[in-house]
Amino acid sequence: MGSMKEFIGVMMLLSTCFMSMKGEELIKSSSSTLTLEGCDFPAIFNFGDSNSDTGSMAAAFYPETSPYGQTFFKEPVGRASDGRLIIDFIAKHLGFPYLSAYINSIGTSYRNGANFAAGSSTIRRQNRTYFDGGTPFVLEIQTQQFNQFKARTGKFFTSGNKGYKKQFPRPEEFAKAIYTLDIGQNDIAAAINNGGKEDFQVVASKIVEYFSNQVQLLHGLGARTFWIHNTGPIGCLPVSLPIHNAKPNKTQPGYLDQNGCVKYQNEMAKIFNKKLKNLVIQLRAKFHDASLTYVDMFSAKYHLISHAKKEGFVEAYNICCGYHKDGYHLYCGNKAIIKGKQIFAGSCKDPSKYISWDGVHYTEAANNWIAKHIINGSFSDPPIPITRSCHRTH
């Protein structure tokens, strides 16, 4: 009964932007959406964290090791998964090759855009190094990297050097490109690790304010089509669940929801998402020359987790790659001595049956499922497919 209520809640959330419409207005809106022409995006520029990092951290620091990348690429390629990420499926759907990481200098092409996302990235500034689980590539740095990318590539088209023109977007294509953003999960994780020492309502407002500044900077640099993901159900990440941590496995009543996710962590994600959605609405009112689509990744991912077996997966709390038992956490691809035995944190036999790849990130199969359910507009406000998201709609 609980899962049915959650499903109804998801459907109500998807219809929020229509609640004030009369029936006739709703029909007209749906009809106009169907008649929108497809957007001929020449490029895609992505900003985010490890959920969409296609090689930034691997190029800048230590490269990924096996079994990462085993399913599709057959080798580690800097992605925190066994295969492709949601951004890869989005790029494919739009007719682009897989996005090259901006700082990856080997075998890259930027003709159809670039990926500035980096693992461990946050919206707000950090005071942690890579060795402490941090990264220098916070959102503010990513947008400045884009600023440099646009300025430097633009010079190639005024210098008469034809050789570079095949490798980079043309100056006029930056305004016609789509800008995707998927970041914020690590900001919430930082607040959780802070042990609730600060009022999260206040913290979330500050995070969203930082995000707003960077979106407005991108707009000032010519961005006009934004595809903005909210953050997923962080309380459902398997590594944070009691089943992989507590000894014995006991929790206080009300600590977990009906799907075994940590309720207070998901509530924090919802607070952030609500503020993020309000920001998107405000920016729409401010920028009449831009389109901003808010994508409810929380609901898409939570629906998959809630209906894991129905969608062909094993239990959502199961982890494909890694060793997570009795409070010990040995992450995917690593070795360690645990209880006197050498353990290698290898992968499961069939990753396509799992939602969680390494306890934090999703498998290619799960990423594919999520991508299919967001690119058609089912979880978007306004509810239009990504191929038509360049149109400003009400």
What's the helix and strand layout?
Layout lengths: L1 H13 L8 H12 L9 E5 L7 H5 L25 H8 L19 E3 L23 H21 L18 E5 L2 H9 L6 H21 L4 E5 L33 H24 L4 E5 L1 H10 L15 E4 L2 E4 L3 E4 L2 E4 L19 H11 L5 E2 L13
Q: How does the helix and strand content classify structurally?
A: alpha/beta
Helix fraction bin: 25-40%
Kindly state the number of beta strands: 10
Strand order of the largest sheet: 2-1-3-4-5-10
> Biggest β-sheet: count, sense, barrel?
6 strands, mixed
Radius of gyration: 21 Å
Counting H and I runs of at least 4 residues, what is the number of helices?
10
Shape: globular
The termini sit apart by: 35 Å
Average pLDDT: 90
Low-pLDDT segments, ≥5 res: 1-32
Beta-strand content: 5-15%
The SSE order reads HHEHHEHEHHEHEHEEEEHE
Protein name: Alpha-L-fucosidase
Organism: Lupinus luteus (European yellow lupine)
Family: Belongs to the 'GDSL' lipolytic enzyme family.
GO molecular function: hydrolase activity, acting on ester bonds
